[in-house]
Specification:
This protein is mostly beta strands. It folds into 2 domains: about 130 residues, Jelly Rolls (Sandwich), CATH 2.60.120.380; about 150 residues, Sandwich (Jelly Rolls). It is built from no helices and 21 strands. The strands form 5 sheets. It has a 5-stranded mixed sheet, with no helix packed on it. It has a 5-stranded mixed sheet with strand order 2-4-9-6-7, with no helix packed on it. Strands 11-15-21-17-19 form a 5-stranded mixed sheet, with no helix packed on it. The relative contact order is 0.18. The N terminus is likely disordered. The structure holds calcium ion (4 copies). The site of one calcium ion has 7 residues, from strand 3 and strand 4.
Length: about 350
């Protein structure tokens, strides 16, 4: 049900990993000679092959095990990256055993960039990505054993280099926004009279993920009147109906308008359903249907999505019944949990 399909979002990336320290590049070069001399001295693997690491992943020697492995690099501004990027840095890491991991890119100085994107490319070539919002981008993924890439791609311009910290760490996806048996805070309105098209808002095609507004001018997101605080949870419920797809890869599509709280800068979303359906969850800033946020992960039953968000902003939480579904309709619950995360100092 979910993983690779998903949203081969934007870019590629590079590796991750880390065994015990990450301070010893495999070629023996001393750590810290990577041109990031402003960065604090700690256990970071330090970028050292900026000029070449956009084309081929920089070997880090990091082996990902039971502890976090940090990589310290910077968005360099003295060369044009491939594809018109300001800079692209790819890093190779290794996993000894399959593991669920969280990859977190902190770049507090990146606000002036047009875009800063994190991507993870697995040994099998599947890619997932996360956009940096408010200095932070987070992705969770189940990785097989083997060599993988983590990548950082910057678009736009900057007067000077922007340091960042990229951390790959073990994760427990089951602990993220667990679905409890609760009465939902908001239930989808009955949209059967509108052919289940009353609240669709976004049409979605997968692999690669392309999203856009529906042609309809009469659909509206469900007005939940709910805000997700940084320690709060809002549970949505609805029905993903058995209707014919309308030009994309989904049957029924349901969008819910939800505000983020004053300090909420990160969302975890988990969907669960009973039937043999395959539902996908995406997040959009309201009125931005072309810019999907979050990538579903295959690490748990149902659907789990995480994404950085802006505080005090209206978002559309979208759930659609994939054409891969074996059976519809499906009654679902969709929990939206808020968090306040502080980007790491680079
Ligand atoms: Ca760089
Ligand atoms: Ca580079
Ligand atoms: Ca529906
Ligand atoms: Ca609908």
């Amino acid at each position: 049900m979910r993983p690779g399909r998903a949203l081969s979002v934007l870019l590629l990336l590079a590796a991750c990993g880390g065994d015990d320290g990450g301070t010893s590049p495999i070629d023996g070069a001393p750590p810290g000679d990577a041109g990031v001399s402003d960065a604090p001295v700690d256990d970071c693997y330090r970028e050292r092959l900026d000029a070449e690491n956009g084309d081929a992943a920089e070997p880090t020697g990091l082996v990902v095990g039971g502890v976090a492995r940090p990589i310290c690099g910077q968005v360099d501004v003295d060369h044009a990256g491939a594809g018109g990027a300001l800079d692209r840095d790819r890093f190779a890491v290794t996993l000894v055993t399959p593991a669920a991991v969280v990859v977190r890119l902190s770049a507090p100085g990146s606000a002036g960039l047009e875009r800063l994107q994190l991507a993870i490319t697995t040994a099998t070539g599947a890619a997932i990505g996360a956009r940096v919002i408010g200095g932070l981008g987070v992705a969770i993924v189940q990785l097989p054993a083997g060599a993988h890439e983590l990548s950082v791609t910057a678009l736009g311009n900057s007067a000077g280099a922007i340091p960042y910290r990229l951390v790959i760490a073990p994760d427990d996806p089951t602990a993220r926004c667990p679905l409890a048996t609760v009465n939902p805070d908001y239930r989808e309105a009955d949209e059967s009279a509108a052919g289940h098209r009353a609240n669709d808002m976004v049409q979605v095609r997968g692999a690669p993920l392309v999203t856009s507004a529906t042609p309809s001018t009469s659909d509206r997101p469900e007005d939940t009147q709910r805000a997700v605080s940084s320690v709060g949870r809002v549970v949505l419920a609805g029905t993903s109906a058995d209707v014919a797809p309308a030009g994309d890869d989904y049957h029924d599509r349901d969008a819910f308008a939800v505000y983020t709280g004053q300090t909420t800068n990160f969302l975890e979303l988990r969907a669960g359903w009973a039937s043999a359906a395959d539902l996908d969850v995406l997040v959009f800033e309201a009125e931005h249907p072309d810019e999907p946020l979050g990538v579903p992960t295959a690490t748990v039953a149902g659907e789990l999505v995480v994404t950085s968000v802006k505080p005090a902003t209206l978002y559309w939480v979208w759930i659609g019944g994939s054409t891969r579904s074996a059976a519809l309709p499906a009654s679902y619950q969709l929990a939206v949990c808020g968090r306040e995360l502080t980007p790491d100092a680079p």
